[in-house]
Design a protein that fits this description.
heterodimer; A: alpha+beta; Phosphorylase Kinase, domain 1; 7-stranded antiparallel β-sheet; 8 helices; about 50% helix; B: mainly alpha; Rna Polymerase Sigma Factor, Chain: A; Arc Repressor Mutant, subunit A; 2 domains; globular; disordered N terminus
Chain lengths: ~250, ~180
């Protein structure tokens, strides 16, 4: 099938609406066609920035309480004596619903952030040019970022460790430019993302160690920057690289 | 005979988790905080009343969104936008010029710019983009929510995406000339 015909199916493919057989055929085509793959990546970016931009408005706690109360009270007739029990119970219920909703929202946000970082990691490795500055020398890679991102950072000396620096590229996350470094450990590639730790977006990012979609992720704050280490290597290896980065930052 | 309808107690379990999303959607539709709050309250009240007619097995989320959207369309603001709404079959969006490569377009367009562009889109484009990208609804769910055939979902989404690109492009070019 010609590229033109595939392009017409890309949106349905990315929306998860293509028949399984066609989706398989299309992903095979994408592996061999750079132009269609680039188009796909752009559409993914557009989808992602829309998803982020569209989550814009938060309801007030007052409205939340009103709505929760309006649906929590079934239209049953109850005597006033019950109110002594029912009112505190309803309040506890509303509070627990609110807490529960917050926890769920927080979890959903975490999942989103991790899968977005995992996407960036995978997309870079799948690209025909995974890195824009190809060098194992941190003194070459670091200056390359000057003028491309609005901050600077330090990279560790890897002598005596098992890690090798492959290179770097500029990455965008939540509309913030940042540094994306790729390290190699044995057969594994590990991505290190560095972004500025400012704005509501950055503040909402999860800290600590996690596993998402079988990737290990470790994140911390240091000197106004947020670090994310993402890879399919073992959690111990991710931790070792994180320690090296911490000690140099 | 056992009652085939869902017991009323589960309305809360089904409906409350949708609260944040429904509010976000209402706020995008109405472009006004207090109207959005009224709309969400009205939606929950109507849905609770109509819940006995809701059939288990059909899509609850699409049902809630449909109630919200119908309430919006019959509100004063909704009636005003309905004028634009009837013209949806004419494709009068200006063709997107491909002078800016897509990659640059999206990297330059920050969150605020995408939000402004969404605001500028007609309601029927804005809502379908939100349902697809933010709510991550399937075409089937979107069709149920908007009460349109599944085939129309795809073509309207296509036009909505095209219109959004075109607005973003104008914004970026306008911004550049304005400097």
């Amino acid at each position: 099938m010609a590229c033109e015909a595939w392009r017409g199916k890309l949106d349905a493919y990315l929306d998860g609406e293509l028949e399984p057989a066609q989706a398989t055929a299309l992903s095979t085509h994408l592996r061999s066609c750079g132009a269609c793959a680039a188009d796909t990546l752009e559409r993914v970016r557009m989808k992602r920035s829309l998803a982020a931009a569209g989550r814009r408005y938060e309801p007030s706690p007052k409205l939340r309480a009103q709505v929760a109360l309006s649906v929590a009270n079934p239209r049953r007739k109850i005597g006033w004596q019950w109110m002594i029990v029912a009112v505190p119970a309803a309040l506890v219920l509303i509070a627990s619903v609110a807490v529960n909703l917050n926890v769920r929202r927080e979890n959903a946000r975490r999942q989103r952030v991790y899968s977005e970082l995992a996407d960036l990691h995978v997309a870079a490795l799948a690209s025909s040019t995974p890195v824009d500055v190809l060098s194992t020398d941190r003194h070459t890679v670091k200056p390359w970022f000057q003028g491309k991102i609005p901050f600077t950072f330090n990279l560790p000396d890897l002598q005596g460790s098992e890690f090798t620096l492959l290179g770097g590229r500029v990455a965008y996350f939540a509309q913030m430019p940042g540094a994306h470094l790729i390290y190699q450990l044995r057969k594994h590639e590990i991505s290190v993302f560095i972004f500025q730790d400012r704005g509501a977006e950055a503040a909402s990012l999860p800290l600590g160690v996690a596993h998402a979609l079988s990737f290990s992720v470790e994140s911390w704050k240091q000197d106004g920057l947020r670090y994310f280490v993402v890879g399919d290597a073992g959690a111990g290896d991710i931790e070792t690289l994180s320690k090296l980065l911490r000690s140099s930052g | 005979m056992p009652d085939q309808r869902l017991p009323a107690a589960t309305f809360e379990d089904l409906a409350l988790p949708l609260f944040d999303q429904l509010y976000n959607f209402a706020r995008w539709l109405t472009e006004d905080t207090s109207e959005a709050e009224d709309l969400v309250q009205e939606t929950y009240a109507k849905a609770l009343r109509g819940f006995s007619s809701f059939r288990a097995g059909t899509n609850f989320r699409a049902w809630m969104y449909r109630i919200l959207r119908n309430s919006f369309l019959s509100s004063r603001t909704g009636l005003r936008t309905a004028v634009v709404f009837n013209e949806e079959d004419q494709d009068n969006t200006p063709p997107a010029e491909n002078s800016t490569p897509e990659s640059l377009l999206i990297e330059q367009a920050n969150r605020q710019m995408v939000q402004q562009a969404l605001e500028e889109l007609p309601v029927h484009f804005r809502e379908i983009l939100l349902l697809c990208e933010v709510e991550e609804m399937s075409y089937q769910e979107i069709a149920q929510t908007l009460a349109i055939p599944s085939g129309t979902v795809m073509s309207r989404l296509f036009r909505a995406r095209k219109a959004l690109r075109s607005v973003l492009q104008q914004k970026l070019q306008g911004g550049r000339h304005g400097l």
